[in-house]
């Protein structure tokens, strides 16, 4: 998965032609580390339909603040450059799949 920073966030998320799932995470966050393999798996499954990206909040505090990231992991769904949904914490692969379906089946 692509790691984003303030220099490429606009291009890769806001201006993306695909819907984007952004995983705001930190290396010290145990649930973030647990979720990483699920995000990778879903990224591979949804190739060419959805874009999955990561933002390390320790290295990108300005993005953390701009998008009001409080709890981790924080998953923000963007479509057509706009935030469509978000949730904090990681429950399961099933939960993430259901959130993705809900956002894009509206």
Could you estimate the helical fraction of the residues in percent? 25-40%
**CATH level 1 name:** Alpha Beta
Which radius of gyration do the C-alpha atoms yield? Answer: 12 Å
Count of separate structural domains: 1
Strand order of the largest sheet: 1-3-2-4-5
Any low-confidence stretches, pLDDT <50, length ≥5?
Answer: none
Could you describe the largest sheet, including whether it forms a barrel?
A: 5 strands, mixed
CATH homologous superfamily title:
Glutaredoxin
Discrete helix count: 4
Cα distance spanning the termini: 26 Å
Overall spatial form = globular
Counting helices, strands and paired strands, the structural category is alpha/beta
The second-level CATH architecture is 3-Layer(aba) Sandwich
The H/E string reads: EHEHEHEEH
The overall average pLDDT, rounded, is: 91
Description:
This protein is an alpha/beta fold and 106 residues long. It has one domain: Glutaredoxin (3-Layer(aba) Sandwich). Helix content is 38%, strand content 25%. It has four helices and five strands, in the order βαβαβαββα. It has a five-stranded mixed beta sheet. The longest helix has 16 residues. The radius of gyration is 12 Å and the shape is globular. The mean pLDDT is 91.
């Amino acid at each position: 998965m692509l790691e984003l920073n303030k220099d490429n966030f606009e291009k890769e998320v806001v201006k993306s032609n695909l819907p984007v799932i952004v995983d705001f995470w930190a290396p010290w966050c145990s649930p973030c580390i647990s979720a990483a393999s699920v995000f990778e798996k879903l990224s591979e499954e949804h190739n060419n339909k959805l874009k999955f990206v990561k933002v390390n909040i320790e290295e990108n505090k300005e993005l953390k603040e701009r998008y009001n990231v409080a709890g981790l992991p924080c998953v923000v769904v963007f479509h057509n450059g706009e935030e469509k949904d978000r949730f904090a914490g990681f429950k399961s692969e099933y939960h993430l799949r259901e959130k993705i379906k809900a956002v894009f089946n509206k």
